[in-house]
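STRUCTURE:
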């Protein structure tokens, strides 16, 4: 039997990775630290994935086991030693800490293909995990693959302790073909691609960028749900403008224009899905990470400037992130403190890596002033 050891039994782990591989006949072994969730999954022996699209349907997932990362370490190591795939979906701030246990399990593995995939939402996250694992297992055997991946199913937060995971009825799970070891599995929902970097940019510069624009500008104007924010004509105009700027960039980088157009058309419908109940707070959270030079807003803006392409709408998205001050997001509060103490230009230079003398820096500052006024007007109405 094929086995996948999935670190992280949260929404992405269960609602996307576990769901796809269980349907393909894999034994899914979840490893987590959430005592309540582990107990519930063990007691019931199943969970439900609710797929929300033009219609709503539910699928039961039963072919899994779940273990505590610390308490059941020996059992997890045993499964890693027999696994076909080891994957993580625990968050970019945590996943590298899993390197020791993954390395220990791989050291017990037979000399036959196994692939390790970090399903974390930032560029080439698997490569970083590979480097961390190599500190504990060196040299790395050639029969261990470390393909980068990109997943693109919208999964809003689910109530903690619930057996039900709400997900978008949309599959996108891309795997870097050149670094995958062994025969390519024929699994519905998986796609093995060449030119992985270009496909990653397609996703991060459209899906993630679009979510960020809706999140930051939606928050600024007092919306709660993403589906409401996109109905605001002013926000939608900026979103569509930013997607156009990215489309021109991706075309120049080598993606087919017709392919991008259809992708964006579907994306706008996905953003408008009211049944998902996705919030602006979720898609806007962690603004410092999302303002990094390789991420969803600054990344495409810098590339547009480098290639002599327009980026006015992307600049509004960056400015919106700089104004995000949601009180329940410690990252947002830290960003506001940095701006207050060090100044906006320091943040542009040190977090965004935007040259202060550049036209992009000028447009972000200009957009920031415009959005500040809009924010004041919105607050005065409350």
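SEQUENCE:
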């Amino acid at each position: 039997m094929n086995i996948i050891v999935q670190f992280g039994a949260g929404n992405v782990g269960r609602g996307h990775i576990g769901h796809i591989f269980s349907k393909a006949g894999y034994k899914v072994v979840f490893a987590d630290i959430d005592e309540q969730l582990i107990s519930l999954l063990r007691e019931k022996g199943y969970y439900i994935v609710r797929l929300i699209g033009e219609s709503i349907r539910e699928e039961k997932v039963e072919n899994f086991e779940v273990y505590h990362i610390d308490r059941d370490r020996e059992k997890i190591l045993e499964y890693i030693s027999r696994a076909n795939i080891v994957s993580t979906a625990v968050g970019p701030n945590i996943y590298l800490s899993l390197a020791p246990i993954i390395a220990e399990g791989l050291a017990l593995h037979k000399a036959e293909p196994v692939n390790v995939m970090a399903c974390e939402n930032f560029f080439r996250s698997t490569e970083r995990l590979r480097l961390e694992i190599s500190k504990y297992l060196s040299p790395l055997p050639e029969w261990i693959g470390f393909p980068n991946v990109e997943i693109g199913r919208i999964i809003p937060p689910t109530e903690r302790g619930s057996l039900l995971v709400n997900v978008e009825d949309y599959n996108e799970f891309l795997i870097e073909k050149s670094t995958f070891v062994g025969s390519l599995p024929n699994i519905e929902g998986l796609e093995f691609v060449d030119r992985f970097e270009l496909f990653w940019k397609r996703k991060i510069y459209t899906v993630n960028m679009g979510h960020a624009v809706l999140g930051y500008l939606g928050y600024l104007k007092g919306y709660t749900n993403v589906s409401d924010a996109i109905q605001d004509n002013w926000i939608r105009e900026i979103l569509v403008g930013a997607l156009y700027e990215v489309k021109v960039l991706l075309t120049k980088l080598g993606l087919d224009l017709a392919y991008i157009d259809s992708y964006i058309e579907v994306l706008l419908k996905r953003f408008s899905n009211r049944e998902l109940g996705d919030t602006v707070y979720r898609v806007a959270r962690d603004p410092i990470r999302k303002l990094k030079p390789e991420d969803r807003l600054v990344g495409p803006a810098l590339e547009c400037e480098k290639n002599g392409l327009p980026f006015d709408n992307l600049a509004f998205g960056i400015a919106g992130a700089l104004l995000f001050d949601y009180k329940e997001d410690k990252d947002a509060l830290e960003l506001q403190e940095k701006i207050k103490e060090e100044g906006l230009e320091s943040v542009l230079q040190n977090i965004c890596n935007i040259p202060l003398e550049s036209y992009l820096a000028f447009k972000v500052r200009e957009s920031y002033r415009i959005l500040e006024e809009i924010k004041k007007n919105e607050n005065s109405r409350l």
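REMARK: The mean pLDDT is 93.
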